[in-house]
Design goal:
Layout: E1 10-22, E2 33-48, E3 53-58, E4 61-66, H1 77-85, E5 94-100, H2 110-125, H3 132-147, H4 153-160, E6 163-167, E7 177-181, E8 187-195, H5 198-208, H6 213-235, H7 239-256, H8 261-271, E9 276-282, E10 287-294, H9 301-307, E11 311-314, E12 323-327
Parallel strand pairs: 3-5
Antiparallel strand pairs: 1-2, 1-12, 2-5, 2-6, 3-4, 6-7, 8-10, 8-11, 9-10
Length: 328
């Protein structure tokens, strides 16, 4: 590490929100997924200090700690965990301000976006020069340590930007693969108004299928096959085939048991719109968001009236992933 941190320096890190397109649930068990970064961002402002104090400021909380003993904070877990991961490379204190353009209560991957921005910034500040996969590995370890499980698909999308085909590391796949696809999709997200924590959904699925492990594995294999078909269709720009794959995946999620009445109402209203090609759960289900591929421009008044009861989130795919720049 150079001595340049002896004088005060400033940086700004940004990372995009994200959403899952295909691969929900099955990706947790090593199957592939499609996801994309969104054009709403988390920003982290950094300033070096002349002492060893680390001060974190966020809408979720404020925390003051020391470089040689980075203590925890219950609402800033991903921020603190990222700092701890780079602790051995830091040589001075930091003032850190975390800002977000979107609410953490809506399923746009806010935790992953914060983690991606932190990793990008620390990689620059510490001059570690880690590549995308190495940063993902560090971040994925943080996710596992904090949550016990998680594929890291959302982190991969926020780090990479764009639309990605994500293959987690498995016994047969020794390295994580993050393939960026040159595709821009028109997207609509409708928030159901409530969100069941992913861990709770996974627990409910495990209980519901505990006596049918073989059938569950076959269901996950079907999900993997549909996701691969969708990725191939996108790369060939065979969009009708891609839309059908999304509809097929929704049927599999319904079979898994993570659909509910509200989600189905939103899906039914969306597919009444001629300009919406398909609609499905985005995320773990039992609440959160419904993803529509298309736009609401030609939506019939009846469908619009049904959707008016829910929050519509205007989003676009962000080609930019996490990045950090120095501020003079």
């Amino acid at each position: 590490m150079s001595d340049r941190l002896n004088s005060s320096q400033k940086w700004r890190s940004i990372a995009p929100a994200n959403t899952m397109i295909l691969g929900e649930h099955s990706v947790v068990y090593g199957k592939p997924a499609l996801a994309c970064a969104l054009d709403q961002f988390v920003t982290v402002h950094w300033q070096t200090r002349q002492d060893s104090a680390i001060n974190v400021y966020s809408a979720l909380g404020e925390h003051h700690t020391q470089l040689d003993n980075i203590t925890l904070h219950p609402k800033l877990t991903f921020v603190i965990a990222a700092l701890q991961a780079f602790q051995s490379h830091l040589t001075c204190g930091l003032d850190i301000q975390v800002e977000s353009e979107f609410s953490s209560t809506i399923g746009l991957g806010s935790s992953a976006a914060v983690l991606a921005a932190m990793l990008s910034g620390l990689n620059t500040i510490c001059e570690t020069n880690y590549n995308l996969i190495r940063l993902f590995e560090i971040g994925h370890r943080v996710i596992i340590d904090l949550q016990g499980r998680g594929s890291g698909t959302d982190l991969a999308a926020s780090l990479s930007g764009g639309t990605i085909f994500f293959q987690p590391k498995t016994d047969l796949q020794p390295l994580t693969s993050i393939q960026k696809l040159n595709i821009k999709l028109p997207l609509v997200l409708i928030y159901a108004g409530y969100k069941t924590p992913t861990a709770d959904v996974l627990r409910q699925v495990a209980i519901a299928w505990q006596d049918k492990p073989n059938e569950l594995e076959m269901l996950y294999r079907s999900m993997a096959q549909v996701t691969k078909q969708a990725s191939q269709a996108l790369q060939k720009k065979e969009f009708e085939r891609f839309y059908q794959a999304c509809s097929d995946y929704q049927m599999l999620l319904d079979k898994l048991g993570v659909n509910d009445k509200t989600i189905q109402t939103i899906i039914d209203a969306l597919i009444q719109c001629e300009s919406i090609h398909c609609a499905k759960i985005s995320g773990s289900g039992l609440g959160d968001c419904v993803l529509g591929i298309g736009n609401l421009d030609e939506c019939k008044s009846e469908a619009l009236s049904k959707l008016a009861a829910y929050q519509s989130i205007a989003i676009k795919v962000s080609y930019a992933g996490a990045k950090t720049e120095s501020i003079e």
